[in-house]
Design a protein that fits this description.
9 helices, six-stranded mixed beta sheet, Dipeptide-binding Protein, domain 3, alpha+beta, 27% helix, 354 residues, globular, 10 strands
């Protein structure tokens, strides 16, 4: 068996499979733009499309700790604190039809997430709070916070009434940014459509990945956003550190009252939500410090997920899928997310016999 390195031209690679010039092609993890075509060809028996959950998870992160609030909220210059109340974040999760996104963009080949771990992970906490698509529940939470429907029309944005650090009468209009990848161009309009049903107007913004992530200028790592959508890689260890206080990005030269760096990770910090919870920090710290196999290891990771799901600094959206395409007469391929290469069991590959 030979190995041929090809480019990312989907049409050309499918043609290679159909012509018999290739047996196996890895289409990568972000395969949302290819799924429909390949599923149709699979159904026609022209090729085999193999899908499996990946280790990359997409999320919508809230700008809880906007960098403008680092010196205290300034009503004359700082943006409204839309997400200071966890109930607003929970409401958005209830109003967001994540299963519809999975079905329409990933053609049902992915799965909705409840925490930063997928349901199949051995440390997943099944008792953590869940937010199924439930617009009435979301709207009830918004009313409780003070976002009221002033005209009885869910298609118009709600207005603020008596919400701390939100000027009276502010419309619930949020900016929602992401990269310009094909997947996000498909997903973001569905996000806006879902949230509009609860009286939340969403202004969408796409940027090149370099503009989106690179400091200086990054709205993500400089914490200058309402909501942003992107992905993190999830390994075998639960990535609770993504949301710890010490991992908030910021100017490494800024010192706290004791003279220590206020942002110890500097611009490398990954907690772009600016979320800070001593309880979560402690649970994550203890989980990371406990040896695997000890009862406390599961206990602390469960607790961290429980706090995360209640406070919801980010809405986990879905797992990216891994997709491998093979000739219809090739057998033995087994996709396993714990292996980085689809060729991990190449010795088992074989031609199927009629």
């Amino acid at each position: 068996m030979g190995v041929r390195f090809v480019d990312e031209n989907t049409v050309a690679n499918i043609a290679r499979i159909l012509s018999g010039n290739c047996d196996v092609i890895d289409s990568g993890t972000d395969s949302s733009d290819q799924s429909e075509l390949l599923l149709e060809m699979d159904a026609q028996g022209l090729l085999n499309a193999h899908f499996a959950p990946g280790t990359v998870w997409e999320h919508a992160t809230f700008g809880i700790g906007h960098s403008g609030y680092d010196d205290g909220y300034q009503p004359d210059s700082d943006p409204p604190d839309f997400f200071g109340d966890a109930r607003t974040r929970q409401a958005i999760a209830f109003c967001l039809d994540r299963q519809e996104i999975v079905d329409r963009v990933w053609f049902g080949q992915s799965q909705v997430l409840d925490t930063y771990l997928p349901p199949g992970h051995p440390l997943f906490n099944p008792d953590a709070a869940r937010y199924p698509y439930d617009p009435p529940a979301g709207m009830a939470l918004l009313e409780g916070v003070g976002w009221y429907d002033h005209d009885g029309d869910p298609a118009t944005p709600r207005l603020a009434r008596g919400i701390p650090n939100v000027p009276e009468g502010t419309p619930l209009v949020i900016d929602y940014g992401s990269t310009s990848s094909i997947q996000r161009q498909q997903v973001l309009p569905l996000v806006a459509e879902s949230l509009a049903g609860c009286g939340i107007q969403v202004n969408l913004e796409h940027r090149d990945a370099a503009d989106f992530f690179e400091v200086p200028g990054s709205p993500v790592f400089e914490r200058r956003f309402d909501m942003v959508q992107f992905a993190w890689l999830a390994g075998a260890d639960p990535p609770c550190e993504l949301f710890t206080s010490e991992n908030i990005p910021g100017d490494p030269g800024v010192l706290d009252a004791s003279g220590s760096p206020r942002f110890p990770r500097g611009w490398q910090g990954e907690n772009v939500a600016g979320y800070s919870s001593p309880e979560f920090d402690q649970a994550c710290r203890l989980a990371k410090a406990t040896l695997r196999g000890q009862p406390e290891y599961l206990e602390y990771h469960n607790l961290a997920q429980q706090i995360f799901a209640q406070d919801l600094p980010a809405v986990p959206l879905y797992l990216w899928t891994r997709l491998v395409v093979t000739r219809p007469d090739l057998g033995g391929l087994v996709l396993d997310s714990s292996h980085q290469s689809e060729m991990w069991n190449i010795e088992e590959f074989d031609r199927l016999k009629d």
